[in-house]
Amino acid sequence: MINVNLIVNGDAREIAVDPRLTLLEVLRENMLLTGTKEGCGVGECGTCVVLADGDPVTSCLVLAGDADGVHIETIEGLASNGELSDVQQAFVKTGAFQCGFCTPAMVLTATALFRDDDQPDVENVKKALAGILCRCGAYPKILEAVAEIKGVQT
Amino acid sequence: MTTYVGTRAPRVDSVEKVTGSAIYGVDVALPGMLHGAVLRSPHPHARILSIDTTAAAAAPGVTAVVTGRDFPLLFGAAIKDQPFLAIDRVRYVGEPVVAVAAASEAEAQEALDLIRIDYEELPAVLDMRFALSDDAPLVHPDLHAYERGPSDIVPHTNINTIYRYERGDVEAGFAAADYVIEGEYSAHAISHVALEVHAAIAQYDSGSGGYTLWVSTDRPFLLRNELAGGLGVDSSRVRLIVAQVGGSFGGKGVPVAEAVAVALARHSGGRPVRVEYTREEDLVASQHRVPAIMKLKTGVNRDGFMLARSAEVLWDSGAYTAYTVGVAIRGSQTIVGPYRIPDLKILSRQVYTNKSITGSYRGYGTTQVTWACETQMDEIAVELGLDPVAFRLQNGYEEGDSYLNGQIMHGVGLRETIEKTAVEIGWGAVEREPAPHLRRGKGIATMIKPTMTPSSSNVLINLAQDGRVAVICAAPEIGSGQDTVLAQMAADAIGVPLDDVSVPRTDTALTPYNGPVASSRTTYHMGNAILTAGAEIREELLGLAGDTLGVDAEGLELRDGAIYDLDSELRITLKDLLAKYSGEGYSITAGSRFSSQGSPLLKADPGEEWMSSIFWMLCTQAAEIEVDIETGVIRVVKIAAAADVGKAINPMTVEQQIEGGAVMGASNAILESFSYRDGRIENGTLADYKVATIQDLPEIVPIIVESVHDEAPYGAKGVGEPAAAATPPAIANALYDAIGVRIKDLPLTPEKVLEAMGELDAGGA
After folding, report:
1. Tens place of pLDDT for every residue, chain A, 154 residues?
2. B564 touches chain A (CB under 8 A)
3. Largest CB tally within 10 Å, which of B56, B117, B642, B699?
4. What is the pTM of this model?
5. What is the extent of the structural domain holding A45?
6. Which residues of chain A lie closer than 8 angstroms to B656, CB-CB?
């Protein structure tokens, strides 16, 4: 076991974990933050994306030990006091999800994108979201959601 | 009057899905839970000579090791041919052979390495055509002896389903035709690729002999019945608790992880056992679309009227029949397409092969036969010099036409779907080629699908003391937005705010029977049940209000949670009314069952009523594509997709289905295929089995057509399945339009495009 200082959604805590565990496993199993999903476990589907120091990473490919001291944001941390973030609200308004399994990753990645650039063009949006599969094919409405957010921020 | 029906109400599952609080099957964890792992067959066909589990059983953390000999039971909805774990013989690469339960997933996995199995390899059947030949080994020598339903098999062959249909005199029809075309078309195996993999937790109760499962399924009662049938217990002894479902598309209806979890639970002393497939297991060993080879012959007269069609369809069920028999029967009927053709003959046969099991895939056979039908429609139009749009309109079903069995069809918006997609895609207008190596083309395809008939839905609606309403029904939300649609209908049927309506998750011990969340049937069937139960609750509330206010209930109305008199004067809010009864407590419950059985709409020729459908789904798509003549790569530029949905209860969720279906259809057509070597799938990862990403997204224009159906709830039919079927032929027809290349076997790979272009050049030279 190794001790890891995990900072998740602003809360820092020291936990002892098996060094073989991934960040995804620790988030889901040790911290019970099941909003982060596992769709393949090998970095191919993108449903496990969390933000690490603000950047989207596939948490199934990160060892928990390597997340020591890194600021991790998961989907559970986005709404504050029950108030949905702009991105979450846009997803709701436009219906940018169906089964919802990829939604946490989509919402987090879109959130990171807007922090860097509040008027991303559609090609950059597609590039940013290309690593996350949505088998329901919510893509058109996800682009609508992004357009909605741009509207909010101008 | 409706407040919510017909509006783009936000989905009722919005907040839980955008905040990550939604609990899916893979998120469920129970105290004391064990973890299962599965050792799978490395051979497509082999006899199991011996299994040594001694070392595995003694490994750290291991609590149970179970083989088919320990659990020698068979299940199967139509034919009871599938073992929970292989018994004596394995029939496909990836078939579960030994299951291990351990304290942790890692320990269970490690124990698998300690199991020794001796196999004697047998000749395998890896091709469905070979399966028909006299030389083919039998995948199931005991086929004739299995318990089975009413469908026909051919004993002592690999044919597990045979179905024939004939109407009129097809030979006379061909003789009368001015033009007869024949072709062979094939549709390949594809994976559902629900982002949530197959997973189940099972727990055995030795006291009752019953099982409880926590699952992710679209068919709670059918799955329950199938498991109970296999386990040999009364169906209510198997209880299924269904979480949110992370995608299904027809793929989560038969026992997959459930079968393994149940076998382990039986040997785990009452502790719950969780089995979660890896993505590779999910791709290779869960379930695929039923591959089909379709020979289609059509006779047309010189005026463009279709006279006769014969079809010979061969379906590949894989190693077990699972849920394929209906595909082979109902699916093959649909090869006629939405067209008036007097003389018909269909022969449909389905064979076992030593490949992964197959089954329902968003359309239950429709995606395959639509591929054949609509590709050939285009060929005929080209051959006769007819416009593909006009040719389809000329032969397509209209309101009041007779279906094959003589059923008079109502709610037939086919014409409008064709006309509107044609306009949207700019039919007839030639697009400028953007570069010398790029060619543009447009294609159109349409489709028809019945819904399973008869079938029934039950609902219990409970209005609680605080005015909140629970719509209790076994209709899991698989992503299609139906919780929202059911809640909208309930809110209007009763007269309460949508925010006050919820649809609790399914639990077969608590929720009454419902047919599957399949066949696009839920809105129609559960909607009708909700209308009746909702009206009953409304009446009771108005009676209560009348008594409380001392007025005649006939003079009151309930709208959006408030009671008005006939002058629209607010008399009392529902919450205030119910608060008056808080001392004694108050709750209203109403139940209703809806079945399509007995509807006069189903009347048909004697003996053929079973082919009727309570509603018909019609959908047309037009695609514009761009093909790179140097690389053969097809890029879909635009898809105009129209679906006749009767009435869109929620236009936003209907658009989601239409758009998502087109995304899936395009992905199926261009990107997806399995690569096999000696019966083994070589590309069992999402890196190698490609599905569409947002970068593959064309412009999609969803078009909602609302034909009139008198028995539908608020007029609503279904939309989930048809949305994906017309896309592949629309794209392939656009490919022909672009470069004159006709590909008849899916998928449309760059290699095939280049090869066909080469043949074209050689032929022209």
Report:
1. 999 999 999 999 999 999 999 999 999 999 999 999 999 999 999 999 999 999 999 999 999 999 999 999 999 999 998 899 999 999 999 999 999 999 999 999 999 999 999 899 999 999 999 999 999 999 999 999 999 998 876 4
2. no
3. B642
4. 0.97
5. 2-77
6. 95, 98, 136, 138, 141
